[in-house]
Write a structure and sequence with these properties.
By secondary structure, the chain is mainly β. The chain has one domain (26-114). 7% of the residues lie in helices and 58% in strands. The chain is built from one helix and six strands. A two-stranded antiparallel ribbon has the order 1-6. The two termini are 52 Å apart.
């Protein structure tokens, strides 16, 4: 019953028009942002074959060396260098790296308007 009473005493509502009272203006907006990206890189490289390499100076190395080959000096008694490397299947290298990239940006926007 109260709602009926409220309806009977309520008066109509009128909307007023809004007219801007300015002739020109400037709006300035500034935005600052910072982005930080951290990457964690983990790389494991695998070898699936066996490799055998031999190198050196003043060493007699046959055309197709194999593990267990006997090597001799070309000029005995003189200096020499000898390297023998054998890689079997498995992990050949591991790389663990963390990299952070930071980007700062600053933007200024200016809007000029007139009426």
């Amino acid at each position: 019953m109260r709602w009926l009473f409220l309806l009977l005493i309520a008066s109509p509502v009128q909307a007023a028009s809004v007219v801007p009272n300015f002739t020109s203006g400037v709006v300035t907006s500034e935005t600052t942002s910072r982005t930080e990206v951290t990457e964690v890189i983990n790389v494991v490289e695998y070898s699936t074959a066996t490799s055998y390499t031999v190198s050196g100076t003043n060493i007699n190395i046959p055309d197709n060396p194999t593990p267990g080959t006997s090597y001799t000096q070309i000029n005995p008694g003189e200096s020499f260098q000898f390297t023998e490397t054998m890689m079997t299947p498995g992990i050949s290298s591991v790389t663990d790296m963390t990299r952070t990239t930071i980007t700062d940006s600053f933007t200024t926007s200016i809007s000029v308007f007139t009426q």
